[in-house]
């Protein structure tokens, strides 16, 4: 059995460039601070979080009914609704719609779901040109990379990297690093693609059961521009995106961008309910493991996620390891509780890539108990026998010692004695003691507290 | 009031002076805490590693050890939080329920249970407070930057009350230090980097004595400070108050 | 069994007992021109006061070059646009002047319904955008905004807040990503 690299192993690579790690950490901390400013300025923010959480809990508890209601409303609006059990079926449906439209050029706005389903390679393999139109997505598409963040897909790159990529692919001047000029070059390049595309694919931020609408939020306007021009619009949505009522959007639009970037709202909060006359609108509803997660009471709440990325921006581990260290479509704390549902063995290290500091839970706009779920996934992975044998047996041994005071006392004496007698070079050897890569071990005292206490008691008894 | 001192395993073995200071500080406040010698650990190292089931005998042992006390006071927010939050997987007998609510962090006990909001004494140094995540976000002993810009909390107030003490204002008031239990070895690289960043924030703003209510965070930070021989003393807050309260 | 039936069955088997749907209170807020202006300017938009709608043409003429190709239902325009207008023509438009339905003071957004767009792509394909708004049509928060829509979002509609922007390169804010390079709200 080949083991994929652990989060720690991938992080070690990221950490090699200490300066870049500092930059990555500070850039995302800056986003977290923008979020804080927006949150502090909204007195009812905590009340909104609770409402959002309750609305999502309710919706998940009647998800089947809301899916049916949404479908009926969408059909009545002239929208075609498709159901996909998994990524393959989703990709086949999308390709089928593209083919039926006789199209070969597709423009796609940002969608983590299509990333999750690996739609692009499927379309490309079938002769369909698919262009990501979100600037960050386009940058990483040109580089052949995966997004490293759900809202800021190219946050792992510096402007020099983007300049290099655009020089290679878009023919910009070599050494161009000005974000304004780079963005302008992308604007010109992508305008051509928007004008030529026959099909526009979008993600879905929210879907409204009551009206059959899908809502797409962008700052760039790429989704609206593409959909407004193309003959066919395909909106791909995970089935947990539903909200019962149009008015519920008030709660969620108020929370989403304040949590994500500190903006009061995205520039474009677009409501697609009916296709334009003579055009087509399709919605593909995707399961791909979501019903399974819905059936896990301890992890169900992860489906409330609205992909704001706040847990990534606040996570001290994510900020210092980068999104690619998670090796899952959704990185960061939320990704670490979604990924084991998809493949426990492959993602076994992710729930351990956290200090359980709880900041993710506190910033989450829909109050997902992320750090508690990380803890619970660890228990599931332990019970499923996924932990490395060394850890498993050392923990069993530790348990035996800690449940028996006599053994514990003897063990403590031995450990302290050991630390005092073993030469520093050995106790701090990098291959044997990961603690010592950057830290000294505690200086072992002559006496433990219990020894001191026993001595005191015997003195005072006399 | 029958009070037991809960001394986390690593404090017992490596930082006896912290437990001694806790005991003496409580005594100065009129509380004679006893140390039940059969105590071992809260079981957190196993549970955080995904071996919660293996920790069950340890949980039972903890409850048996402390069930006859009104309060179980420990100088470690993380261990206290573990008892209060994660002992939910064993049968919730009256003894278990009692121990879960009776287990209290030292400064929470001093401020919330004893009602002491100011401790006497002088400590003429610039002190940097490291907030333990489990004390702050878990036990709500301090305000959280995720919720409010106000930087307040039990320990911060007590420290600010000491004569001659200056508190450091950090760039990041409540970022995790990166200890995280077994995380510190399973993700050693990130753990060390987080701790280094935390220490740098303190040094940048003039901290002379780095303190906190949780010795586990401090053990990690102290290890980093000693490795680089940085001009910082690391001391548990119990030591500071016990020394100041002469 | 169809995929649809299998998916719905899987969801039914997994979903917990029904939990209540909360009523959302109408959070109050300031619906003033001052608040709307401050917020919209903080996100890169501009607000200009018109004493009367009959000043519209003069104001636009003053603020934009005369050679601009303009599309609008509110002005005499250089480009006539309707739902059937070809993309190549839309692409040449420098300025669109459209009627916003109402504005939201807490976030500086303006509800732009399909009926006011001339063409669905016009608000994003035009290089610059002007939205004309009656100052009496300002609401405080998104709760009031969706209250105004009364569960009728129309075929397509946008809450549009400021010019198109991106910060995808090193978090540097750049105005004019794909949509309008500038947005001005003319309040009358």
From TrEMBL, chain A:
Record domain 4Fe-4S ferredoxin-type: where: 295-325
One annotated GO biological process: lactate metabolic process
Alphabetical UniProt keywords: 4Fe-4S, Electron transport, Iron, Iron-sulfur, Metal-binding, Repeat, Transport
Keyword Chaperone: no
An MF annotation (GO) of this entry: 4 iron, 4 sulfur cluster binding
Presence of keyword Magnesium: no
Pfam families assigned to the protein according to its UniProt record, in alphabetical order: Fer4_8 (PF13183), LUD_dom (PF02589), LutB_C (PF11870)
Coiled-coil residues: none
Classification via InterPro entries: 4Fe4S_Fe-S-bd, 4Fe4S_Fe_S_CS, FTHF_cligase-like_sf, Helical_ferredxn, LUD_dom, LutB/LldF, LutB_C, NagB/RpiA_transferase-like
The protein, known as: 4Fe-4S ferredoxin
Organism per entry: Hymenobacter nivis
From TrEMBL, chain B:
All copies of domain Cysteine-rich, residue ranges: 3-83, 127-221
GO (cellular component) term, any one: cytosol
GO function terms (MF aspect): oxidoreductase activity
Any Pfam family: CCG
Entry protein name: Fe-S oxidoreductase
Domain of life: Bacteria
UniProtKB/TrEMBL annotation, chain C:
InterPro entries: FTHF_cligase-like_sf (IPR024185), LUD_dom (IPR003741), NagB/RpiA_transferase-like (IPR037171)
Annotated LUD domain residues: 86-187
PANTHER family per UniProt: LACTATE UTILIZATION PROTEIN C (PTHR43682)
Annotated protein name in UniProt: LUD domain-containing protein
Species of provenance: Hymenobacter nivis
């Amino acid at each position: 059995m080949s083991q994929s690299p652990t989060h720690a192993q991938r992080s070690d690579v990221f950490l090699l460039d200490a300066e870049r790690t500092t930059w990555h950490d500070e850039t995302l901390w800056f986003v977290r601070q923008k979020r804080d400013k927006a949150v502090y300025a909204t007195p009812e923010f905590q009340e909104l979080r609770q409402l959002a959480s309750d609305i999502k809990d309710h919706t998940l508890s009647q998800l089947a009914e809301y899916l049916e209601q949404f479908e009926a409303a969408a059909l009545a609006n002239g929208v075609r609704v498709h159901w996909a059990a998994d990524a393959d079926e989703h990709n086949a449906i999308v390709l089928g719609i593209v083919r039926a439209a006789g199209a070969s050029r597709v423009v796609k706005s940002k969608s983590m779901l299509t990333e999750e389903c690996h739609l692009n390679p499927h379309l490309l393999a079938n002769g369909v040109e698919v262009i990501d139109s979100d600037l960050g997505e386009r940058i990483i598409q040109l580089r052949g990379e995966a997004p490293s963040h759900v809202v800021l897909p190219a946050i792992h790159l510096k402007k020099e990297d983007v300049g290099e990529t655009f020089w290679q692919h878009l023919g910009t001047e070599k050494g161009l690093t000005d974000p304004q000029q780079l963005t302008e070059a992308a604007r010109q390049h992508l305008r051509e693609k928007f004008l030529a595309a026959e099909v526009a694919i979008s993600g879905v931020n929210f879907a409204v059961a009551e009206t059959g609408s899908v809502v797409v939020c962008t700052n760039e306007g790429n989704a609206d521009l593409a959909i407004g021009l193309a003959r066919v619009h395909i909106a791909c949505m995970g089935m947990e995106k539903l909200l019962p009522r149009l008015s519920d959007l008030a709660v969620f639009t108020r929370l989403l961008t304040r949590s994500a970037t500190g903006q009061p709202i995205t520039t474009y909060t677009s409501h697609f309910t009916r296709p334009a006359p003579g055009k087509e609108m399709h919605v593909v509803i995707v399961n791909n493991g979501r019903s399974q997660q819905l059936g896990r009471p301890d992890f169900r709440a992860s489906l409330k996620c609205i992909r704001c990325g706040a847990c990534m921006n606040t996570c001290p581990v994510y900020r210092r390891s980068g999104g690619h260290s998670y090796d899952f479509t959704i990185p960061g704390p939320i990704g670490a509780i979604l990924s084991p549902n998809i493949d426990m063995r492959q993602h076994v290290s992710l729930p351990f890539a956290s200090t359980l500091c709880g900041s993710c839970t506190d910033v989450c706009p829909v109050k997902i108990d992320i750090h508690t779920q990380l803890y619970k996934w660890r228990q599931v992975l332990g019970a499923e026998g996924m932990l490395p044998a060394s850890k498993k047996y050392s923990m069993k041994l530790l348990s035996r010692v800690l449940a028996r005071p006599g053994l514990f006392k003897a063990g403590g004496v031995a450990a302290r004695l050991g630390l005092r007698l073993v030469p520093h070079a050995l106790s701090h050897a990098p291959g044997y003691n990961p603690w010592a890569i950057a830290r000294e071990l505690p200086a072992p005292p002559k006496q433990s507290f219990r020894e001191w206490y026993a001595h005191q008691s015997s003195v005072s008894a006399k | 009031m029958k009070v037991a001192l809960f001394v986390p395993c690593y404090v017992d073995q490596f930082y006896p002076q912290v437990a001694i200071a806790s005991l003496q500080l409580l005594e100065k406040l009129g509380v004679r805490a006893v140390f039940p010698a059969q105590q071992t650990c809260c079981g957190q190292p196993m549970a955080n590693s995904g071996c919660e089931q293996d920790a069950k005998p340890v949980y039972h042992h903890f409850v048996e050890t402390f069930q006859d006390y009104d309060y179980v006071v420990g100088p470690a927010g993380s261990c206290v939080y573990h008892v209060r939050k994660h002992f939910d997987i064993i049968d919730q007998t009256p003894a278990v329920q009692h121990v879960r609510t009776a287990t209290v962090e030292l400064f929470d006990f001093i401020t919330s249970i004893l009602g002491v909001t100011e401790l006497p004494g002088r400590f003429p140094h610039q002190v940097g407070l490291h907030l333990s995540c489990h004390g702050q976000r878990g036990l709500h002993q301090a305000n959280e930057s995720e919720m409010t810009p106000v930087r307040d909390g039990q320990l911060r107030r007590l420290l600010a009350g000491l004569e001659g003490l200056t508190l450091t204002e950090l760039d990041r008031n409540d970022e995790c230090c990166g200890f995280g239990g077994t995380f510190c070895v399973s993700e050693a690289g990130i753990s060390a980097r987080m701790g280094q960043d935390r220490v740098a924030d303190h040094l940048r703003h003039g901290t002379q004595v780095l303190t906190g209510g949780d010795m586990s965070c401090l053990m990690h930070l102290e290890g980093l400070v000693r490795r680089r021989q940085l001009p910082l003393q690391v001391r548990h807050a119990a030591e500071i108050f016990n020394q100041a309260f002469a | 069994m169809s995929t649809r039936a299998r998916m719905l069955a899987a969801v039914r088997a997994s979903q917990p007992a029904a939990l209540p749907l909360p009523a959302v209170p109408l959070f109050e807020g300031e619906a003033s021109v001052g608040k709307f202006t401050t917020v919209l300017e903080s996100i890169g938009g501009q607000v200009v006061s018109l004493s009367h709608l009959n000043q519209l043409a003069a104001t636009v003429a003053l603020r934009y070059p005369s050679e601009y190709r303009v599309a609008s239902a509110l002005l005499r325009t250089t480009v006539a646009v309707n739902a059937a207008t070809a993309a190549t023509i839309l692409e040449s438009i420098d300025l669109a002047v459209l009627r916003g339905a109402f504005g939201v003071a807490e976030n500086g957004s303006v509800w732009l319904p399909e009926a006011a767009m001339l063409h669905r792509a016009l608000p994003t394909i035009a290089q610059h955008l002007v939205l004309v708004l009656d100052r009496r049509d300002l609401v405080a928060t998104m709760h009031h905004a969706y209250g105004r829509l009364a569960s009728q979002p129309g075929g397509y509609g946008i809450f549009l807040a400021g010019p198109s922007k991106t910060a995808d390169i090193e978090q540097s804010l750049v105005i004019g990503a794909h949509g309008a390079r500038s947005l001005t709200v003319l309040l009358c």
